[in-house]
Write a structure and sequence with these properties.
Blueprint lengths: L2 E9 L2 E16 L1 E2 L2 E6 L12 E2 L2 E3 L6 H13 L1 E20 L2 E19 L13 E4 L8 H11 L3
Parallel strand pairs: 2-8
Antiparallel strand pairs: 1-2, 2-6, 3-4, 4-5, 4-9, 7-8
Length: 159
């Protein structure tokens, strides 16, 4: 669940709504035989992000442990059951998002886990937010969301 707060900012001499949102998220990096599992963003209100590829993962629910969240999110977004092998790193994404009728001061604190597939079959997320999960060669990656690319690069670099 994202924490929110509403402020107003002046944009081009006019008052505009600026909402503060903060979220804790957990993402999984699944690497197998030199290939990484990614999912495409299929639906979002954020301009320019549909079609970008990301690491599977998402928000930690209230009272949920981040390791449980990454297992749940991977099942929801990919159809795979996974095992958490360890925490790679913790990071932060702070940026301004433009949503229809609203500017958002977005701050995401994310935990990146190393995970392994233990079962399941690949499929697109049932609610249609993410498309079909796909394995990509680490040397031939698609256009990725910048935050996911930063996460993956850090894992590949060993940190």
């Amino acid at each position: 669940m994202a924490a929110t707060g509403l402020t107003f900012v002046v944009v081009f001499g006019m008052m505009a709504r600026m909402e503060k949102r903060q979220r804790v998220s957990a993402y999984g990096v699944v690497v197998r035989d030199g290939r990484v599992l990614l999912v495409p963003i299929a639906r979002t209100e954020v301009s320019g992000e549909v079609g970008l590829w990301i690491l599977p993962g998402g928000g930690v629910e209230h009272g949920e442990h981040p390791e449980e969240a990454v297992v749940r999110e991977l099942a929801e977004e990919t159809g795979y059951a996974v095992r958490v092998d360890g925490l790679s790193h913790v990071g932060s994404d702070h940026r301004r998002l433009e949503l229809p009728g609203l500017s958002v001061d977005w701050h995401c604190v994310y935990l990146v886990y190393l995970v392994a597939v233990t079962g399941g079959q690949p499929r697109a997320e049932l609610d249609g937010t993410m498309g079909t999960p796909t394995w990509f060669d680490l040397e031939d990656l698609p256009v990725m969301h910048s935050t996911s690319r930063t996460m993956l690069d850090r894992v590949v670099a060993g940190g």
